Amino acid sequence: MKFYGTPLPGVEHEEYSGKLIVIEGTDGVGRSTHITGLRTWLESRGHAVLDTGMTRSILAGRGIKEAKTGTTLGRLTMQLFYATDFVDRLENEMLPALRAGFVVLTDRYIYSAIARAEVRGVDPAWIRSIYGMALVPDAVFYLRIANPQQLVGRLFTSGRGFDYWESGMDLNLGEDLYDSFIEYQKRILKVFDRLTGEYGFQVLNASRSVRTVATDLRRGVLKVLEEPVSANEDNVSVIQPLRDQAGPTKLTNLVDLNKKALP
Amino acid sequence: MISYGQHQLPGKLFVVEGTDGSGKSTQLALLYQWLKAEGYPVFFSEWNSSPLVKDTTKRAKKRHLLTPATFSLLHATDFADRTERDIIPPLKAGAIVLADRYIYTAFARDVARGCDRSWVRDVYSFAVKPTMAFFFRAPLNVAIDRIVSGRPSLKYYEAGLDQGWSDDAEESFTIFQGKILEEYDRMVSEFGLTVIDASRSIERQQREMRMLIGPHLDRKKRTRSH
After folding, report:
1. Best residue in A12, A57, A58, A59 to probe B by mutation, most B CBs within 10 Å?
2. Could you give the number of structural domains in chain A?
3. In a domain, A9, yes or no
4. What's the complex ipTM?
5. Is A136 in CB contact (< 8 Å) with chain B?
């Protein structure tokens, strides 16, 4: 058990048998599709799975959703409300599940919260200090898309359309939801590229087919679980951690190594 | 983001702190009346008053959903909303803001509950440093008597029953308030709190406050003259 900074109060230092796996990525990149797929697959392999995600806490989930229906949510208030939601889920869902030996799949983690805070001009040291209470996960898979235009299409296929906050409308970045969305997501992607090196994300090129990305994910998850790749998972590409070498140029070389033979 | 002590705002911020039952709210109310009567633009802001967070806190306390960490963060959320809504804008406008409880309440309570001292200070580092912070210091037994006799029963978190120090609410409350007082005492020099002896008469305490605040007031800021 390792924390990024000041640990949770009252938590004894202990080893747990579960695995904490994070799926990160910007809005509309397909995170929830992949988590649903991973969950079913892991369960069929005999793993107990807990999945969780931002604003799903019993404590603060509803409050955040209500606060977001208005436009009076200040930027610092927003960050702290999200942190409350996160810590509630960490203490009451993730930690107990990890102790019980579950695979915990989390749809976003502290990195999205940090990215959103940073694009809003919040002190990077401050937000990191708050999230020092977070456990260092066993793996972070970052579903990366190179430009925000690609995300727009998905917003419509999923029938969601533009959302006020996902478009960063509180930042006055553009004339309308579309302009603002593009500019906001562009900034978020930039922060994520920086966080990739800082936190050692494993980057997956999410502009490929769902199936290809899913195969990559499974392969990565098996590695975390220290399980051998079976015949079913044969047709996958290699994922490599991308420590300290973030940046779009490097990324393109890393993805799509489908042809590479498995060890 | 501007950090504690770095804000340059034309208004003045006066805060009152102290254990429950120390009489600080009474003193702040009297101060408010006086400043208003003198013609100053005054704005009053109290602990746990954010309209965005209120329902969440109420429900969480009723259903005992809070741990030391989430108790701390939820109150920090509430305080951030107060800062962004009720404290910074009036201070920018040159008003006098009176705050009933401030970050020192969080520092005292959260640390008494086991949160890390420097972590809590980091969380609240966005707060505006008050012009003056009054700490109403009452002997522990006086404060406890005032609270316990003043209300039918102590609430769960108020009594610190979430900490498992004692099953008896009154005993738990006494332990909790003792720890809180210890934290306040340590903050006097750390943050330069102005100690007011809360065991003296209401009138005397109020006279002392007005005398101390006087030099910080700008008579030109009064909206009407006398």
Report:
1. A59
2. 1
3. no
4. 0.91
5. no
Structural domains in chain B, sorted by start: 12-214 (3.40.50.300)
Residue A171 domain boundaries: 19-254
Q: Which residues of B touch A129 (CB under 8 A)?
A: 119, 122-123
A8 inside domain: no
Helix and strand totals (H; E) in chain A = 10, 5
- Which segments of B13-96 does DSSP mark as H helices, in order? 24-37, 54-62, 68-82, 88-92
Q: What share of chain A is helix, strand, coil (3-state, %, to 5)?
A: 50, 10, 40
Q: How many CB atoms lie within 10 A of CB B94?
A: 15
Dihedral-angle region of residue A256 (phi above 0 means left; psi in -120 to 50 means alpha; beta otherwise): left
Using a cut of 0.90, tell me whether the model's pTM lies above it.
Answer: no
Determine, yes or no, domain membership for A113. yes
> What is the CATH classification number for the domain harbouring A120?
3.40.50.300
Shortest alpha-carbon distance between residue B81 and chain A (Å) = 5
Instruction: Copy the structure tokens of residue B158.
Output: 């108020």
The candidate with the shortest Cα–Cα distance to A36, out of A49, A24, A46, is: A49
Q: Which of residues 103-142 of B touch A (CB under 8 A)?
A: 113-116, 118-119, 122-123, 125-126
**A261: number of Cβ within 10 Å:** 5
Contact B100, B48 (CB under 8 A): no
Compute the distance between CA of residue A6 and CA of residue A16 in angstroms, rounded to an integer: 19
Count how many residues are written for chain B.
226
When CB atoms are compared, the residue of B50, B68, B73 closest to A83 is B73
Among B52, B70, B84, the residue with its CB nearest the CB of A87 is: B70
Instruction: Kindly list the distances between the CA atom of residue B168 and the CA atoms of A119, B104, B144, B160, in Å, as whole numbers in the listed order.
Output: 48, 27, 14, 10
Whether residue B50 lies within 8 A of chain A, CB to CB, comes out as yes
Tens of each residue's pLDDT in chain A, 263 residues: 899 999 999 888 889 999 999 999 988 899 999 999 999 999 999 999 999 999 999 999 999 998 888 877 899 999 999 999 999 999 999 999 999 999 999 999 999 999 999 999 999 999 999 999 999 999 999 999 988 888 888 777 777 788 888 899 888 898 899 999 999 999 999 999 999 999 999 999 999 999 999 999 999 999 999 988 765 554 444 444 444 444 433 333 333 333 343 43
pLDDT in tens, B82-128: 999 999 999 999 999 999 999 999 999 999 999 999 999 999 999 99
